Amino acid sequence: MVTQKKIKLQVAFALQEIGGIKPWWSEEDQMFVFEHPLYPRVMHADPDIEETIQGYLRALHGFIEDRLHGHLSDTAERVTSGRGGKRPGAGRPKKPVSTVAIRLPNDIANWLKADPRHMAQVRKIMGN
Fold this sequence. Notes:
Blueprint: H1 4-18, E1 24-26, E2 31-36, E3 39-46, H2 49-68, H3 74-79, H4 106-114, H5 116-126
Antiparallel strand pairs: 1-2, 2-3
């Protein structure tokens, strides 16, 4: 269940990632604008700088809330590299045993992959 407390915590985390909200003036739009590359789907523009800041905070809050509820499109999720609003269980599952990649001759690698007992035999030789 997503609570308001959890949303506020995730918004605070996102704001740490973003740093300060410092809108810039867009001559083309005649407004102050703020967006951040970590959250490319979140932006706000307004002729008043304070309204831009408050509007961005509202937009970020809504984005995080949607993200936590799983209401974002796959495209929006894919282009968002910010971690605010990270859903539990999202991402790659943790492996039960830490691993490292090494290069082995094909015959040895194939032998290790062929049977889980072979890994146990290697551990026995190692004294583990």
